[in-house]
Structures are given as structure tokens and as C-alpha cells.
Structure prediction request, 209 residues.
Amino acid sequence: FSSIRIFSSLNKFKKLKKIDCLRNNICFILSSFSDYGDCLSDNLIENKKAEKSRIDLLKSLKKQKKFQIVLKPRKGSFLMKEKKYYKNLEILNYNSRMIEIFGNYNLLIFERISLGIVESIYLNQPVVFYYPRNLYVQKGKKYNKLLYFLKKANIFFDNKKDFIGLIKSKKNISLWWNNKKNLKNRKILLKNFAKSFDYNDFTRIKKLI
Prediction:
């Protein structure tokens, strides 16, 4: 079956017709870190490593003078309390919503798998999933299959060099996002992992009742 959440988002937000007119800024959607937990992927050591990787990327992003970097945090997004790591960056309110994000940025960066990634694809909002190789490796088959499709669609980046190459200019982002092969693979990704609910699904549900 298909996602009612995605169906709701597509009715709530406007699909972007052109991306060339977007402002020269990048919104980094930050994940929430816990400072304790029984699972390796959710403990303090791994989360601090993830935040260090984020800071390392931000240092490189700040050198790209063509773009303004904006952070969208959640509660728990900052384990390292020193403000110097996030100096001179605009940080949105914790309660800021995605309706304020879609269509207002040249590129969105997610550091964790999120429904917001496929919502962005549906809305024609350029988006990437950045998760460097040095971080914890998930072993789930479904998760790795999703990563495979994200990689084929040229949305998943696991090394900084390739990602920085993408954002060196606004033109690069436009060419990457509108590339025919990437467009085709994004459609395959949505078909396999994020089909939007449609009214034909009612018929399928009735057959099961």
C-alpha cells in the first residue's frame, strides 16, 4: 500500500515548477541525538562522532562563499555545547516547520534517513542525504536496499569531496537535479519505497475487508 502521510504532504505543499529561481542558500536539516542508549547506533560515542562529521562538513560548506548556510535543529541536535562550532551560521527556531523550508532553499541536506527526503523529491525540492563512511553502518537489508536506490538516484553522498563538488555552483545543482538519468532513478526510488496514497487504494482495502 501507499503512504497517506506523503499524500497529505503533496496536498499541503506546492510542487516547485522551477528550481533555478531559488535563493542561493542551503538548509541543513539536523537530526536529534541522544546522549545515552543501549544500541550502538544510539549511544553517546557514535552520536558525538556523527556531530563531528557534521561540523567537518559545515567547515567546508562555509568556505563556499556563494551559499548561505542555514541550520534547522531539533531538541537534542547539539551535543557539543561550544558555540564556536556553529559560529556565524543562521539557526532556525526549534519549532520551525517543513512548510517554512520547502521551496525556500536551493538545497536541503538530511543527515539521517527521513520521510522529508522523499517528500522533497515529490515536491521537486533539491535534496541530498549525507552520511559519511566513517559513521555506524546499519545492517538491515531494507535499509541497505534503500541506500542503494538513493545512491543510484545520486541523492546519497557518503564522502565530502563528491558532495562539495556538487555545490560548487548553483548551476551544478540545477544540472544534477534535472539530469535525465537522475530523474529516472528518483522515480524508481519513489515507486519502490515511497508511493503516495491514491484513491485506487480504497478498492484494494475493500477487497481485504
The chain has a mean pLDDT of 83. The beta strands are 25-29, 68-72, 90-91, 107-110, 127-130, 156-157.
